[in-house]
Amino acid sequence: MADEIRRLSDDLARDPSSLVFMPLADALRRAGQVDVALRVALRGLDRHPYIADAHDVLARIHADRGDLDRAADEWEMALRLDPAHTPASLGLGFIDFRRGHLESAERRLSVASDADTGAAAALAHVRTALAVRDGGAAQAAVATAAVSPAERLTAPPPVLEYPSPDVSRARHLFSPVFDGTDQTALLVDADGFVLAGSYVDAAGSDVSEMVGAELAGVSGEAERAMRHLGLGAWTSLLVEADNAVVAMSPAPLGSLVVVATSRQTPVGLVRLLLDRVLTRARDWLARVS
Fold it and tell me: Which residue from 119, 140, 120, 141 is spatially nearest to 130, judged by alpha carbons?
Protein backbone atom coordinates (compact mmCIF):
# COMPACT_ATOMS: atom_id res chain seq x y z
CA MET A 1 0.00 0.00 0.00
CA ALA A 2 2.82 2.42 0.89
CA ASP A 3 4.56 1.73 -2.42
CA GLU A 4 1.35 2.32 -4.31
CA ILE A 5 0.75 5.64 -2.56
CA ARG A 6 4.33 6.72 -3.20
CA ARG A 7 4.11 5.86 -6.90
CA LEU A 8 0.77 7.62 -7.35
CA SER A 9 2.01 10.66 -5.44
CA ASP A 10 5.04 10.89 -7.74
CA ASP A 11 2.78 10.64 -10.79
CA LEU A 12 0.56 13.44 -9.50
CA ALA A 13 3.57 15.62 -8.67
CA ARG A 14 4.80 15.26 -12.24
CA ASP A 15 1.39 16.18 -13.65
CA PRO A 16 -0.91 17.98 -11.16
CA SER A 17 -3.73 18.02 -13.74
CA SER A 18 -3.65 14.22 -14.06
CA LEU A 19 -6.64 12.06 -13.13
CA VAL A 20 -4.30 10.00 -10.96
CA PHE A 21 -5.64 12.01 -8.01
CA MET A 22 -8.59 9.59 -7.91
CA PRO A 23 -6.68 6.33 -7.30
CA LEU A 24 -4.30 8.22 -5.01
CA ALA A 25 -7.10 9.62 -2.85
CA ASP A 26 -8.74 6.19 -2.67
CA ALA A 27 -5.44 4.50 -1.75
CA LEU A 28 -4.89 7.04 1.01
CA ARG A 29 -8.44 6.44 2.24
CA ARG A 30 -7.91 2.68 2.36
CA ALA A 31 -4.64 3.23 4.22
CA GLY A 32 -6.49 5.20 6.89
CA GLN A 33 -5.05 8.59 5.88
CA VAL A 34 -8.50 10.07 5.36
CA ASP A 35 -7.56 13.71 6.01
CA VAL A 36 -4.82 13.60 3.40
CA ALA A 37 -7.15 11.73 1.06
CA LEU A 38 -9.74 14.48 1.52
CA ARG A 39 -7.28 17.20 0.54
CA VAL A 40 -6.12 15.28 -2.53
CA ALA A 41 -9.69 14.62 -3.66
CA LEU A 42 -10.81 18.21 -3.18
CA ARG A 43 -7.82 19.60 -5.09
CA GLY A 44 -8.48 17.15 -7.90
CA LEU A 45 -12.16 18.05 -8.06
CA ASP A 46 -11.25 21.72 -8.33
CA ARG A 47 -9.61 20.83 -11.65
CA HIS A 48 -12.08 18.13 -12.72
CA PRO A 49 -15.51 18.92 -11.24
CA TYR A 50 -17.55 16.94 -13.77
CA ILE A 51 -16.18 13.41 -13.29
CA ALA A 52 -18.62 11.09 -11.56
CA ASP A 53 -15.88 8.72 -10.34
CA ALA A 54 -14.12 11.62 -8.61
CA HIS A 55 -17.27 12.47 -6.66
CA ASP A 56 -17.60 8.78 -5.78
CA VAL A 57 -14.10 8.78 -4.29
CA LEU A 58 -14.87 11.91 -2.27
CA ALA A 59 -18.12 10.34 -1.06
CA ARG A 60 -16.24 7.28 0.20
CA ILE A 61 -13.83 9.53 2.07
CA HIS A 62 -16.69 11.41 3.73
CA ALA A 63 -18.32 8.09 4.64
CA ASP A 64 -15.07 6.89 6.24
CA ARG A 65 -14.98 10.14 8.22
CA GLY A 66 -18.51 9.43 9.45
CA ASP A 67 -20.03 12.37 7.55
CA LEU A 68 -22.91 10.58 5.84
CA ASP A 69 -24.63 13.83 4.80
CA ARG A 70 -21.68 14.98 2.72
CA ALA A 71 -21.15 11.45 1.41
CA ALA A 72 -24.76 11.40 0.23
CA ASP A 73 -24.32 14.81 -1.44
CA GLU A 74 -21.31 13.58 -3.39
CA TRP A 75 -23.00 10.36 -4.48
CA GLU A 76 -26.02 12.38 -5.57
CA MET A 77 -23.70 14.56 -7.63
CA ALA A 78 -22.12 11.46 -9.19
CA LEU A 79 -25.57 10.27 -10.23
CA ARG A 80 -26.44 13.66 -11.71
CA LEU A 81 -23.29 13.43 -13.82
CA ASP A 82 -23.83 9.75 -14.65
CA PRO A 83 -27.33 8.37 -13.90
CA ALA A 84 -26.02 4.82 -14.46
CA HIS A 85 -23.19 5.14 -11.91
CA THR A 86 -23.57 1.88 -9.96
CA PRO A 87 -21.21 2.66 -7.03
CA ALA A 88 -23.15 5.86 -6.30
CA SER A 89 -26.47 4.01 -6.22
CA LEU A 90 -24.91 1.38 -3.99
CA GLY A 91 -23.45 3.99 -1.64
CA LEU A 92 -26.74 5.85 -1.32
CA GLY A 93 -28.52 2.56 -0.73
CA PHE A 94 -26.21 1.74 2.17
CA ILE A 95 -26.72 5.20 3.66
CA ASP A 96 -30.50 4.85 3.40
CA PHE A 97 -30.28 1.45 5.08
CA ARG A 98 -28.14 2.81 7.92
CA ARG A 99 -30.68 5.57 8.46
CA GLY A 100 -33.53 3.06 8.51
CA HIS A 101 -35.04 4.27 5.21
CA LEU A 102 -35.65 0.75 3.95
CA GLU A 103 -37.97 1.58 1.04
CA SER A 104 -35.52 4.09 -0.39
CA ALA A 105 -32.64 1.67 0.16
CA GLU A 106 -34.53 -1.00 -1.77
CA ARG A 107 -35.13 1.35 -4.71
CA ARG A 108 -31.50 2.40 -4.92
CA LEU A 109 -30.06 -1.09 -4.51
CA SER A 110 -32.47 -2.42 -7.12
CA VAL A 111 -30.83 -0.07 -9.60
CA ALA A 112 -27.35 -1.27 -8.67
CA SER A 113 -28.06 -4.99 -8.25
CA ASP A 114 -27.92 -5.88 -11.95
CA ALA A 115 -24.32 -4.69 -12.21
CA ASP A 116 -22.93 -5.48 -8.77
CA THR A 117 -23.16 -8.78 -6.90
CA GLY A 118 -22.55 -7.01 -3.60
CA ALA A 119 -25.56 -4.80 -4.30
CA ALA A 120 -27.65 -7.89 -5.05
CA ALA A 121 -26.77 -9.43 -1.70
CA ALA A 122 -27.44 -6.11 0.08
CA LEU A 123 -30.78 -5.84 -1.73
CA ALA A 124 -31.78 -9.27 -0.48
CA HIS A 125 -30.88 -8.22 3.08
CA VAL A 126 -32.94 -5.02 2.78
CA ARG A 127 -35.94 -6.92 1.43
CA THR A 128 -35.71 -9.34 4.32
CA ALA A 129 -35.59 -6.48 6.81
CA LEU A 130 -38.61 -4.88 5.12
CA ALA A 131 -40.59 -8.09 5.20
CA VAL A 132 -39.74 -8.80 8.84
CA ARG A 133 -40.69 -5.26 9.78
CA ASP A 134 -43.98 -5.34 7.88
CA GLY A 135 -45.17 -8.84 8.46
CA GLY A 136 -42.76 -11.32 9.98
CA ALA A 137 -40.87 -14.31 8.73
CA ALA A 138 -43.61 -15.58 6.40
CA GLN A 139 -43.51 -12.41 4.33
CA ALA A 140 -39.71 -12.42 4.51
CA ALA A 141 -39.66 -15.81 2.79
CA VAL A 142 -41.89 -14.43 0.03
CA ALA A 143 -39.72 -11.34 -0.36
CA THR A 144 -36.54 -13.33 -0.76
CA ALA A 145 -38.06 -15.92 -3.08
CA ALA A 146 -37.48 -13.60 -6.04
CA VAL A 147 -33.73 -13.53 -5.34
CA SER A 148 -31.50 -16.28 -6.75
CA PRO A 149 -30.31 -18.92 -4.23
CA ALA A 150 -26.75 -17.58 -4.36
CA GLU A 151 -27.94 -14.12 -3.27
CA ARG A 152 -30.79 -15.08 -0.99
CA LEU A 153 -30.88 -13.97 2.63
CA THR A 154 -33.76 -15.94 4.14
CA ALA A 155 -35.41 -14.94 7.41
CA PRO A 156 -34.28 -17.05 10.38
CA PRO A 157 -36.74 -19.32 12.15
CA PRO A 158 -38.39 -17.88 15.26
CA VAL A 159 -35.70 -18.12 17.94
CA LEU A 160 -35.76 -16.00 21.06
CA GLU A 161 -32.03 -16.13 21.69
CA TYR A 162 -30.96 -14.39 18.48
CA PRO A 163 -32.37 -11.18 17.02
CA SER A 164 -33.90 -11.18 13.55
CA PRO A 165 -32.21 -9.25 10.70
CA ASP A 166 -34.18 -6.18 11.78
CA VAL A 167 -31.61 -3.43 12.27
CA SER A 168 -32.96 -2.11 15.57
CA ARG A 169 -32.97 -5.59 17.15
CA ALA A 170 -29.60 -6.61 15.72
CA ARG A 171 -28.09 -3.78 17.78
CA HIS A 172 -28.61 -5.96 20.88
CA LEU A 173 -27.08 -9.14 19.43
CA PHE A 174 -24.12 -9.15 21.82
CA SER A 175 -25.84 -7.80 24.94
CA PRO A 176 -26.12 -11.25 26.62
CA VAL A 177 -22.34 -11.67 26.37
CA PHE A 178 -21.49 -8.70 28.58
CA ASP A 179 -21.85 -8.14 32.30
CA GLY A 180 -20.86 -4.48 32.43
CA THR A 181 -21.75 -1.15 30.86
CA ASP A 182 -18.09 -0.61 29.94
CA GLN A 183 -18.19 -3.45 27.41
CA THR A 184 -19.44 -3.22 23.84
CA ALA A 185 -19.10 -5.01 20.49
CA LEU A 186 -19.71 -4.53 16.78
CA LEU A 187 -20.00 -6.79 13.75
CA VAL A 188 -19.06 -4.92 10.55
CA ASP A 189 -18.66 -6.06 6.97
CA ALA A 190 -15.64 -5.49 4.74
CA ASP A 191 -16.91 -2.04 3.75
CA GLY A 192 -17.38 -0.88 7.34
CA PHE A 193 -21.16 -1.37 7.23
CA VAL A 194 -22.48 -2.14 10.73
CA LEU A 195 -24.34 -5.45 10.65
CA ALA A 196 -25.00 -5.89 14.38
CA GLY A 197 -24.08 -4.61 17.80
CA SER A 198 -23.40 -1.06 18.93
CA TYR A 199 -20.50 1.11 20.07
CA VAL A 200 -21.20 3.69 22.76
CA ASP A 201 -18.46 6.16 23.66
CA ALA A 202 -17.59 7.49 27.12
CA ALA A 203 -20.13 10.30 26.70
CA GLY A 204 -22.94 7.81 26.07
CA SER A 205 -23.24 8.57 22.34
CA ASP A 206 -23.72 5.78 19.82
CA VAL A 207 -20.79 6.12 17.41
CA SER A 208 -21.26 2.74 15.75
CA GLU A 209 -21.42 4.03 12.19
CA MET A 210 -18.33 6.19 12.60
CA VAL A 211 -16.33 3.35 14.15
CA GLY A 212 -17.54 0.94 11.47
CA ALA A 213 -16.46 3.30 8.72
CA GLU A 214 -13.00 3.65 10.27
CA LEU A 215 -12.68 -0.16 10.36
CA ALA A 216 -13.42 -0.59 6.65
CA GLY A 217 -10.73 -2.75 5.12
CA VAL A 218 -8.98 -3.57 8.42
CA SER A 219 -9.38 -7.32 7.99
CA GLY A 220 -7.98 -7.21 4.46
CA GLU A 221 -5.01 -5.12 5.57
CA ALA A 222 -4.29 -7.56 8.40
CA GLU A 223 -4.41 -10.50 5.98
CA ARG A 224 -1.96 -8.79 3.63
CA ALA A 225 0.40 -7.94 6.49
CA MET A 226 0.40 -11.52 7.76
CA ARG A 227 0.99 -12.82 4.23
CA HIS A 228 3.97 -10.52 3.69
CA LEU A 229 5.43 -11.53 7.05
CA GLY A 230 4.86 -15.21 6.39
CA LEU A 231 2.91 -15.65 9.64
CA GLY A 232 -0.14 -17.42 8.23
CA ALA A 233 -3.75 -16.33 8.73
CA TRP A 234 -4.53 -13.75 11.38
CA THR A 235 -6.93 -14.80 14.14
CA SER A 236 -7.12 -11.82 16.48
CA LEU A 237 -5.68 -8.44 17.28
CA LEU A 238 -5.61 -6.76 20.70
CA VAL A 239 -4.80 -3.09 21.26
CA GLU A 240 -4.32 -1.52 24.69
CA ALA A 241 -5.00 2.22 24.37
CA ASP A 242 -5.01 4.96 26.99
CA ASN A 243 -8.73 4.69 27.71
CA ALA A 244 -9.80 1.30 26.38
CA VAL A 245 -8.78 -2.19 25.38
CA VAL A 246 -9.93 -3.13 21.86
CA ALA A 247 -9.87 -6.64 20.40
CA MET A 248 -10.72 -7.69 16.83
CA SER A 249 -11.12 -10.96 14.99
CA PRO A 250 -12.11 -11.92 11.44
CA ALA A 251 -15.62 -13.31 11.05
CA PRO A 252 -17.44 -15.12 8.22
CA LEU A 253 -18.15 -13.49 4.85
CA GLY A 254 -15.24 -11.06 5.19
CA SER A 255 -16.76 -9.39 8.25
CA LEU A 256 -15.02 -8.31 11.45
CA VAL A 257 -15.97 -8.44 15.12
CA VAL A 258 -14.72 -5.75 17.49
CA VAL A 259 -14.89 -5.78 21.28
CA ALA A 260 -14.07 -2.72 23.40
CA THR A 261 -13.82 -2.58 27.18
CA SER A 262 -12.49 -0.23 29.81
CA ARG A 263 -8.72 0.01 30.31
CA GLN A 264 -9.08 -1.75 33.68
CA THR A 265 -10.47 -4.96 32.13
CA PRO A 266 -7.98 -7.86 32.36
CA VAL A 267 -6.62 -8.89 28.97
CA GLY A 268 -7.66 -12.50 29.58
CA LEU A 269 -11.27 -11.43 30.05
CA VAL A 270 -11.14 -9.32 26.88
CA ARG A 271 -9.99 -12.37 24.91
CA LEU A 272 -12.76 -14.46 26.44
CA LEU A 273 -15.36 -11.83 25.51
CA LEU A 274 -13.97 -11.71 21.97
CA ASP A 275 -14.35 -15.48 21.63
CA ARG A 276 -17.95 -15.33 22.85
CA VAL A 277 -18.82 -12.43 20.57
CA LEU A 278 -17.25 -14.21 17.59
CA THR A 279 -19.21 -17.38 18.32
CA ARG A 280 -22.44 -15.43 18.55
CA ALA A 281 -21.66 -13.51 15.35
CA ARG A 282 -20.95 -16.75 13.46
CA ASP A 283 -24.23 -18.31 14.62
CA TRP A 284 -26.21 -15.20 13.73
CA LEU A 285 -24.64 -14.86 10.28
CA ALA A 286 -25.41 -18.52 9.61
CA ARG A 287 -29.06 -17.86 10.42
CA VAL A 288 -29.42 -14.83 8.13
CA SER A 289 -27.28 -15.98 5.21
Answer: 140
